[in-house]
Amino acid sequence: MGQDIPDIFTTRGLTKVYGTGPAAVHALRGVDLDIPRGEIVVLLGPSGSGKSTLLNILGGLDRATAGRATFLDQDLTAMSDRALTRYRRDHVGFVFQFYNLMPSLTARENVELVTEIAEDPMDVGAALRLVGLGERMDHFPAQMSGGEQQRVAIARAIAKTPTVLFCDEPTGALDSQTGRAVLHVLNDVNAKLGATVMIVTHAAATAAMAHRVIHFADGAIRSVETNATRLSPDQIEW
Ligand code: ADP
Fold first, then answer.
1. Quick check: is 180 in a domain?
2. Residue 62: CA atoms inside 13 Å, Cβ hemisphere, count?
3. Residue to substitute in 16, 18, 214 for testing ligand 1 pocket (most ligand atoms within 8 angstroms of CB)
4. How far is CA 35 from CA 1, 121, 226, in A?
5. Residue 82 domain-assigned?
6. Rounded to an integer, what distance in angstroms lies between the CA atom of residue 130 and that of residue 107?
7. Is 109 within 8 Å of 102 (Cβ atoms)?
8. pLDDT tens for each residue of 209-218
9. CA distance linking residue 220 with residue 34, whole number of Å
10. Which band of pLDDT confidence, cut at 50, 70 and 90, is reported for residue 4?
11. How many angstroms separate the alpha carbon of residue 181 from the centre of ligand 1?
């Protein structure tokens, strides 16, 4: 029958309303999306256009008000809280603008917090080497630069071998050179581990390294482009 590989995420009429009555905020107004597995996807759009809301629903951190979102063949919108927690634990890594590392733990110990409870974890040293911190494993966050701390956060997120890595403004607090190093790591996570990587960013130049670029405006998708040629993070100017 020639069944295609299922998309990693599909949404239909995905709607999110925060609050009720005159105070209601329509964060997502019926989003239809198909995202193939194994891509780097960059989401661009003005502040408040719904990008983080979409990421949080696909990542199982928030629930839609209406519509449907599926992960492979699982309906995220119909899952129990328990199933959603299991989905997050087994399949999802998150990287945020601020690194949220435990200050009293070393880089290695921050990553171990995740590997100790993961089903199929990577070797902690391998995760830290992949982000270029093989020599800094025993440093504390305060002894590292912002870019290095973000790379520890990425090591922590990938150490559970997630199917998808969600990044919300991962370079938002970094200068361009350090930001580029972080994008390099995200590119490697996609190329070497095969994880789907979804990045919300204000840095529009990041779009050049993506397989797919989704433009948001006012809670809806305005356009989706695929890049025939992608740039390496080294070639990105911003
Ligand atoms: P973006 O990521 O594109 O900046 P968001 O998804 O964060 O946009 O926000 C979309 C809209 O939803 C904004 O108007 C924002 O203020 C609102 N919003 C987001 N989270 C909440 C929340 N927890 N409660 C109320 N409103 C929210």
1. yes
2. 18
3. 18
4. 22, 25, 11
5. no
6. 13
7. yes
8. 999 999 999 9
9. 14
10. low
11. 29
Does 3 fall in a domain?
no
Query: Which residue segment(s) compose the domain that 135 sits in?
Result: 37-66+90-235
pLDDT value for 1: 43
pLDDT tens for each residue of 52-98? 999 999 999 999 999 999 999 899 999 999 999 999 999 999 999 88
Residue 61 lies in a domain: yes
As a whole number of angstroms, the distance between CA 123 and CA 114 comes to 11
Q: Report how far ligand 1's centroid is from the alpha carbon of 41 (Å).
A: 20
CA distance 217 to 203: 16
* Across 3-19, average pLDDT: 90
- With beta carbons less than 8 A apart as the criterion, state whether 89 and 101 touch: no
Q: How confident is the model at residue 196 (pLDDT cuts 50, 70, 90)?
A: very high
This prediction's pTM: 0.92
Look up tokens 């999110």; give the residue.
16
* Residues 45, 219: Cα–Cα separation, whole Å: 10
Instruction: Specify the CATH number for the domain of residue 197.
Output: 3.40.50.300
Task: Extract the tokens encoding 75.
Answer: 């309906």
Total number of domains constituting the chain: 1
Nearest ligand 1 atom, CA 49:
3
